[in-house]
Amino acid sequence: MSRPGTIGAQPGLEREYLTADLPGARQRALAELMAGNRRFVTDTLRHPNQNASHRAAVATEQHPFAVIVGCSDSRLAAEIIFDRGLGDLFVVRTAGHTIGPEVLGSVEYAVSVLRTPLVVVLGHDSCGAVQAARAAAATGTAPTGHLRAVVDAVVPSLRRAQQAGVDDLDAIVDIHIAQTVEAMLESSEALAAEVAAGGCAVVGMSYRLAAGEVRIVAAEPTEMAGVVAAAA
């Protein structure tokens, strides 16, 4: 990880998010992601910040405008589905977007040190981690090795879905995304403090593998869910 640079020292889109208008920075960051996803869906990609000059510009410092805590699924590459480039996104990926100390530490670094105004929990339909957890619960047999940690991390979401009478896989995925948002805020005092102070927002998104679209399923603060993408 590179050290954060002086605000205004780096050219490029991400600089405009590092302003004193912190609530506005959160909204602009989310709007930028949603606009990029719309370009991806409509095949009007711009491929921003992917050239040699920008590579040189971000070689010594970084100012990402969003943190993506996403599932490791090979079809869920954040820079592609949001049409972004080098230095734009701080990406952390685990199976089923499960969180632990290393994930939370990475998020806290981005939010507290790099001053990134938006954290996104990115899940997707037909999630294999959720399916594995459902199978383990149904058969009463836990997977072996470290895979068990992934399954165990999804279990609270399964219980929450069961209490709500939800059995559809993709509806459970949405619950799991919202559960991850809540768990991050409960587990990280630093992240919760940034959100409470207005310096950061946490948004849960679900991605449709076939259509390529993302939709917001959870947000803190809640008004972030109403942010409409800026014109691409």
Automatic annotation (TrEMBL):
Domain of life: Bacteria
Cofactor (UniProt): Zn(2+)
Keyword Metal-binding applies: yes
Alphabetized Pfam families for the sequence: Pro_CA
Cofactor info, note text: Binds 1 zinc ion per subunit.
GO terms of molecular function: carbonate dehydratase activity; zinc ion binding
Gene3D superfamilies associated with the record: Carbonic anhydrase
Top enzyme category: lyase
Example GO BP: carbon utilization
Catalytic activity field: hydrogencarbonate + H(+) = CO2 + H2O
EC number of this enzyme: 4.2.1.1
Keyword Metal-binding: yes
Protein residues bound to Zn(2+): C71, D73, H124, C127
Cross-referenced InterPro entries: Carbonic_anhydrase, Carbonic_anhydrase_CS, Carbonic_anhydrase_sf
Keywords, in A-Z order: Lyase, Metal-binding, Zinc
Role summary: Reversible hydration of carbon dioxide.
Protein family: Belongs to the beta-class carbonic anhydrase family.
Protein's name according to its UniProt entry: Carbonic anhydrase
Organism: Micromonospora craniellae
